[in-house]
Amino acid sequence: MTDPKTVANMIDHTLLKPESTPEDVAELIAEAAKLGTYSVCVSPSQLPVETPEGVHVATVVGFPSGAVKAEIKAAEAARAVEDGAEEVDMVINIAFALTGRFDELESEIRTVREAIPGIVLKVILETAVLDDAAVVAACRAAEAAGADFVKTSTGFHPAGGASVHAVKLMADTVGGRLGVKASGGIRTGADALAMIEAGATRLGLSSSAKVLADIENEAK
Predict the structure, then answer these.
(1) Which of 73, 122, 148, 151 is catalytic?
(2) Confidence check: pLDDT of 25 > 80
(3) Which residues constitute the catalytic centre (predicted)?
(4) Against a cut of 0.70, is the pTM above it?
(5) Among 89, 148, 191, 214, which one carries the catalytic annotation?
(6) How many CB atoms lie within 10 A of CB 174?
(7) What pLDDT is stored for residue 1 in this prediction?
(8) Domains in the chain, start-ordered, CATH in brackets?
(9) What's the pLDDT tens digit per position in 64-120?
(10) Across all residues in the chain, what is the average pLDDT?
(11) What's the pLDDT tens digit per position in 158-173?
C-alpha cells in the first residue's frame, strides 16, 4: 500500500475551471500546502502566484483543445515561465496524432521545448481519443522532442480521462526515461493507486483531499 504522504508528493493539485477566481486559487494553494502536494496547477491567466516553500507551480498551454499553432503554444509557455511557472503541461494538436502526422507532432512539441529550456515539459496526449498505436507513436514523438513527461488527458474532453490501460501503455513505451502523468477523472484513492500501479509517476487531481483521505483510511 502506498502511503498518503508518498502519493501527495506525486500530485499536481489542479484548478483549471475557466470560472476560477483568484480567491479560488488562493484556497487551492492553501490546501496544497496542508496536504503536502508536489505542486499546484492553474491556468496561465492566474499567474503569478505565491506558494509556500516546497509547493511548485505548474500551468497549461494550448488548453484544453490543443488546436492552436505551435508558435502560439511556445509563446504562451514562455510567458507562463516569465510569470513563475516551473512546469508546463502542453496539449498536443490531437489531429496530428489521429492522422499519423507524427513528424509534425514532434516538431510542435520541440517548438515548445525550445521556448522553455530547463523547465519541466509535460505533453498531454488526450489518450481517450487515440488508439494504442497512436498513443505509442505520440509518446515516442514527445520523447524525441525532449519532453520530460507524457500525460494522459486534459480532463475536459468528452471522450474521457485517464485509464489504467493508457497509463500502462505509456509507461511501457517511455520505459522510465520520461515521467508519466495520469490526469482526468481520478476521484478516489483506489483510482489513484491503480494509476500508480500501472506506472504513473505524477497525478493530476482536483479531488486531492478526498483521494488522500481514502488512501489514509484504507491504510488504517
Answers:
(1) 151
(2) yes
(3) 89, 151, 181
(4) yes
(5) 89
(6) 21
(7) 58
(8) 4-219 (3.20.20.70)
(9) 999 999 999 999 999 999 999 999 999 999 999 999 999 999 999 999 999 999 999
(10) 97
(11) 999 999 999 999 999 9
CB 112 within 8 A of CB 90: yes
Q: Which residue out of 122, 148, 181, 191 is catalytically annotated?
A: 181
Q: Specify whether the CB–CB gap between 153 and 160 falls below 8 A.
A: yes
17 catalytic? Reply is no
CA 119 to CA 144: how far, in whole Å? 16
Task: Please give the C-alpha separations between residue 184 and each of 62, 66, 105, 134, in angstroms, as whole numbers.
Answer: 17, 16, 22, 19
Contact 92, 100 (CB under 8 A): no
DSSP reduced 3-state for 14: strand
Q: What is the pLDDT of residues 33-57, one digit of tens each?
A: 999 999 999 999 999 999 999 999 9
Residue 204 and residue 188: Cα distance in Å, rounded?
A: 12
DSSP H helices in the chain:
4-8, 22-35, 70-82, 94-98, 102-115, 132-144, 164-174, 189-198, 208-219
Residue 151 is among the residues annotated as catalytic for this protein: yes
- Between the alpha carbon of residue 136 and those of residues 39, 140, 143, 190, 201, the distances in Å are 27, 6, 11, 26, 18
Say whether 5 is catalytic. no
Q: Which of 172, 169, 177, 213 is nearest to 11 (CA)?
A: 213
pLDDT of residue 203: 98
